[in-house]
Structure formats: C-alpha cells, structure tokens
C-alpha cells in the first residue's frame, strides 16, 4: 500500500524527531490516523515500534549531547566571568616571567622599555596578548599580530592580573554578537567609525607615516571588542559612551558576517566581465548601425 512505500522512503531511522515539528498539522493528523491501520499487520507494527525506539534513541542522544554541552559550556563561561583570586595570582606569575622586564615589577613601566600598565585594564591586556602583540619581540619592534604565546586561559589570567591593578576597561563576558537584525546598523557604524582606516571590507589599509591598519580577517569577537575598548597604537579608543556595548556587538556582527560571506560586494577588479560583454555588444551594435547607414546612403 502507498502508506508503506512512503514510510519506506522516509525511514532513515531518524527523520521523525526533526521533521515532526515542521510537518504541517494536517500531515501530522494524517500520520496519527495511520497508527490504527498499523494494527492490521504485525510487520507494520514492529516497524512502527522500531521507528519509535529509534526516535527514543535519537532523543536520548540529543539529551546526552545537550546535557554534556550544558555541563561544559556554563562552566567555561563561569570561569571567564568569575576569575578567581587564584587566577589573578597565576596571571601575576605569568606576568613576572614574561612582561616584567619591560613593564616593571609593579606595572609601573620601565623607562625606555615599556609603558606603565597601571589602569590600562584587562581589555587592553587581553587584546595585546591574545593577538600575540605582547610580549613584544624587543625594543622598538613593531608589534604586529603574531601567533599568541599564551593560551586563552592564561591570557585571561594575565589580563585579570593587570586589570586588578588600577582598574581600566574590562574584558567583556557573554555573547558578543548582537541581534542579527542589527547587522545593517552594524554596517552603518562600521562605515562611520572603522572603514576610514580598515577599508570598507575590513581588509586593512596603510595609514600615514608608515603605519598600517591591519586586516580584520583574523580578529575574534573578543579581539574586536577589546580593540574598540582599548584603541591600540594609532587606533582611537571607542569608549562605551561613544559606541554603546550594543552598538559594539552590532559592529562585531557586521564584521564577522562580512567575513563569512564570500562576496563582500564592491567593485572587484575581476568582476569586469559583464562590463566588457556590454561593451562588446554595444560596439557590435554600433557597427551594424554604421553598415546600415552606409547601405541606405548608397541606395539613395
Ligand atoms: C620587550 C619589551 C616588552 C615586553 C616583554 C612586553 N611588553 Fe607590553 N609593551 C611594550 C611596549 C614598548 C609597549 C608600547 C608600544 C606599543 O603599544 O606597541 C607595550 C604596550 C603594552 C600594552 C598596551 C598599553 C596601552 O597603553 O594600551 C599592554 C597592555 C602590554 N604591553 C602588556 C604586556 C604584557 C601583558 C606583557 C607580557 C605578556 C608584555 N606587555 C610584554 C614592551 C613590552
Ligand atoms: C584611525 C584609524 C583607525 C580606526 C578609525 C579604527 N582602527 Fe582598528 N586599528 C588601527 C590600527 C593602526 C591598528 C593596529 C594597532 C596595533 O597594531 O597595535 C588597528 C587594529 C585593530 C584590530 C586588531 C586586528 C588584528 O587582527 O590584530 C581590530 C580588531 C580593530 N582595529 C578593529 C577596529 C574597529 C572595530 C574599528 C571601528 C569601531 C576600528 N578598528 C577603527 C586603526 C584604526
């Protein structure tokens, strides 16, 4: 019977759990009314029960994954929000082994080597260390992005230590993406505040005096946020008064979305195809007209 073949087609072992919700109620009702008919044949019934048990297995698996995730995810974000005194202490030790020579034993700075970090804040420190700019390679070296020396946790710990001395803008926690509906606001803010240096597609651009605004391609959400909060080198600081946290999130949404979509728009040089085609048609058309005019002229 037809019901059977339909079932056979869709019997992938896992279709009902996902599709049932999307199935229009009429179809669901139809499916429900199918159930009694299944009592007609034992084979069909066992098939239904097999299906039900595979659904149960799937639900169980989903629950396990979800449970595992919720066990892991909140704990890691909890670590981030509630960096403990022990984390600050570990951060201090890391600081003393990698930063002290240039920034001093009390973050007061070392003349000719590195500026004071008192009140610089955890956000600036997170940005500098996570993008590999710090620890600086040496005196007068330009501090471009390079592979980070510390892992995420250590970076947070160093940032927490620096942030514990004199305050300053803090590393934000939680989701740094705004509402996808804000992407166009983000684009507007990006063009207003960032594009002049980083290029309208975030590809980066040279600034005056040999400085460069780097590409934003490698920047994570948190790096984008902390860059805005701290304004490294020639970049201005965008405090929460100038660009609110929600606006910062909209900008991040926009930039990350721009990177995700392969075609950022604009006039790419490799996109002259349609133009040359149009040109060809235009000249060819003109040529035909010229011939026609000459022909008419000769006739008269
Ligand atoms: C070789 C010397 C050197 C070492 C080592 C070094 N720094 Fe720096 N750091 C500098 C210099 C010079 C600057 C200022 C120039 C610049 O921003 O590029 C700076 C700037 C910074 C800033 C930005 C300050 C601001 O006002 O925004 C932070 C934050 C920072 N360093 C943190 C660290 C941390 C954390 C470490 C260790 C993991 C470290 N630095 C290791 C030399 C150093
Ligand atoms: C006046 C020019 C200027 C403006 C405007 C500007 N930036 Fe920057 N930006 C820079 C420069 C210069 C650097 C490199 C700093 C350094 O290397 O220490 C930088 C670095 C960054 C980085 C680090 C990139 C990486 O991967 O290392 C991010 C992220 C960033 N900017 C985001 C933004 C955002 C978002 C805006 C707009 C809200 C913005 N910038 C506006 C000049 C600018």
What this model shows, in words?
The chain is mainly α and 300 residues long. It has three domains: 2-81, no CATH class; 83-168, Cytochrome Bc1 Complex, Chain D, domain 2 (Orthogonal Bundle), CATH 1.10.760; 172-264, Cytochrome Bc1 Complex, Chain D, domain 2 (Orthogonal Bundle). The protein is 59% helix and 1% strand. It has 13 helices and two strands; from the N terminus they run ααααααααααββααα. It has helices at 2-10, 15-22, 25-37, 42-81, 85-98, 100-103, 122-130, 152-163, 183-193, 195-198, 221-230, 245-260, 273-299; strands spanning 205-206, 212-213. It has a two-stranded antiparallel sheet. A hairpin with a 5-residue loop joins strand 1 (205-206) and strand 2 (212-213). The longest helix is centred in the N-terminal third of the chain and has 40 residues, at 42-81. The radius of gyration is 31 Å and the shape is flat. The model is unreliable at 1-24, 26-41, 70-80 and 267-273 (pLDDT under 50).
Task: Lay out the secondary structure.
Layout: H1 2-10, H2 15-22, H3 25-37, H4 42-81, H5 85-98, H6 100-103, H7 122-130, H8 152-163, H9 183-193, H10 195-198, E1 205-206, E2 212-213, H11 221-230, H12 245-260, H13 273-299
Antiparallel strand pairs: 1-2
Helix pairs in contact: 5-8, 7-8, 7-11, 9-12, 11-12
The chain binds heme C (2 copies).
